[in-house]
Amino acid sequence: MEELRNDVIELAQSTPSSSELMQRLCRLLHERMLKYNWVGFYMIEPEAEPPMLALRAFLGAMTPHTRIPLNQGICGAAASSGRTIVVDDVSKDPRYLACSLGTKSEIVVPVFAHGRVVGELDIDSHFPAAFTPEDQELVQHCAALVGKKLENSKQ
Questions:
Q1: Cα–Cα distance measured from residue 87 to residue 65, given in angstroms and rounded to the nearest whole number
Q2: The pTM is what?
Q3: 114 FRET partner, CA 20 to 30 A, in 101, 134, 145, 154?
C-alpha cells in the first residue's frame, strides 16, 4: 500500500490539471487495487437546482447514475455531510442507489477545495467489507490531492 501511496503522490505532482488527475487516479486505483471494481469522481454542479453531483472521470461499468441529487444515495449523503462513508454491505443500507448487482460494498470520500465540498471519490467493490482503514486512508489521500489540485488550478 505504501508503494501505491507514493505512486499517487508522484502522479499528483506530475499531472497538470485536476480533470487529468482524476482520470489518472481512477486508472491507477482501478488497475492496482483489484478489489476496486468501479472508481469514479462526481463533482457538484452548484448552478443546478437542486444542486447535483455529476459524474466526471470513472473506470468500470457504465452507471445509470450520472447525476445524483445531494439528498439521495450514499454519494449524496457523503457530499452533504462532508464525511467519508464506508458501507460494508450495500444491501443493508437503504441509501444505496443500485448501479450494479455485483456491488457488495462502497466507500465515498468528499473532495474539499477552499474549505468546502466540491465533489467526491466513489469506489464500489464486488467484495463485502472490502474497505479497510488502510483503504480509507488511501482514498481520502487521493481525494485530498484532487482538492489541492483544484485549489491551485482553474480547471
A1: 18
A2: 0.95
A3: 134
Q: What is d(CA 144, CA 50) in angstroms, rounded to the nearest whole number?
A: 25
Rounded distance, CA 55 to CA 43, Å? 7
* Grid coordinates given for 62: 457504465
Question: Distance between CA 14 and CA 108 in Å, rounded?
Answer: 25
Contact predicate 74/85, CB 8 Å: yes
For residue 138, the surrounding DSSP H or E stretch is helix 133-152
CA distance 6 to 9: 5
- Scan for cell 437542486, then name that residue: 50
* Vertex 153: Cα angle to 150 and 155 (nearest 5): 75
Q: Measuring CA to CA, which residue among 112, 102, 105, 110 is closest to residue 132? A: 105
- Mean pLDDT for the chain overall: 95
For the chain, give the percent of residues with pLDDT over 90. 88
